[in-house]
Queue: 2 jobs
Job 1
Amino acid sequence: MVGENVQADVYTREDAIKLAKELELDLVEIVPTADPPVCRIVDYQKFLYDKKKKEKEMKAKQGKQVVKEVRFGPNTDEHDFNFKVKHAMNFLEDGNKVKAYVHFKGRSIAYKEKGEIILLKFAQALEEYGKVELLPKLEGNRMFIHLAPIPRKKSK
């Protein structure tokens, strides 16, 4: 048993309950799987409040991962390509993942190589901002590539 104003030691259940009543606090089982089980003498309402507060902090620190999409056609020109690369750079710098894809319409699916070249060129242009998670992969009439941001050291 552990707690404030209590010497950490092994107590019988009856002694622990008696001690908790004397201090007008609650006996809470912290680690039931230990041998012997670990208990703490605390104010139970405060214990629950602190537990919820810690969980809320952990959830806030966790952060949500957002996936931004960038769409190309198999015949995307250089200017449009550069424009989309700049947007993807901003997305990666903000800590978002980027999913780029080439959408093939109708018979343009015959030019799969063009789509793969565009996506590999895209990944190469962004290699210092993000790393490739998934190489170009054709699913249906779309060819995908996934990029994840490279963690940057924050300057002081």
Note: The domain at 2-61 is CATH 3.10.20.80 (Ubiquitin-like (UB roll)).
Job 2
Amino acid sequence: MSSNIVLTVDVREGTGKGAARAARREDLVPGVVYGGKLGPVSVNLRGNEIRKALLGGHFLSNMIELDHEGKRQTVIARDIQFHPVSDKAMHIDLFRVDEDTKINVDVPVHFINEDACPALKRGGVLNIVRHDVELLCPAGSIPEAVEADLTGLDIGDSIHISAVTLPKGVKPTIADRDFTIATLQGSRAVLTDAEEETDEAPAEPEAIKQKGDEE
């Protein structure tokens, strides 16, 4: 995935809470750029650009270009702190990368072909264990999502990470087990119907036995 987010950045001279509060009063978002061969640098980013980028989605799973006086540097957002009341971005950590830098990133799971899933047709329920999975991938090839196919799955079946096709060069960070992403479970109504059928099953043999006794 190539970068389509460009953020204007200024080096922040002051450090500490006072400098950060002063930046926020001017609708700037304090941040730190770190990683690579260079040391950490305190920066300020434009509040309106951050809000626009966040509204666009995938901010934490997309390469970002920082524009500092016409010079650009590629980073990825590693952490964002939000105000607990206003939900405005308060601080951002940015990690220097290039397209081949391997990073860990959480990627959402999309479930497809629900109409071809026998379990759901029978009134079953999709129990999602993981709404996203942590993947190790090149910064330039971060998938927007991975797809889990529900085709042919019935009640009692499970979807594991091995059933999900990942892009080339992308691997799950959990490598020691084939972890579960979702299960197909029977709903209460389906289970009740099954229990009723089980309860009624012995009635027929008993009726035959009684008939035989009468004869």
Note: The two ends are 81 Å apart (CA to CA).
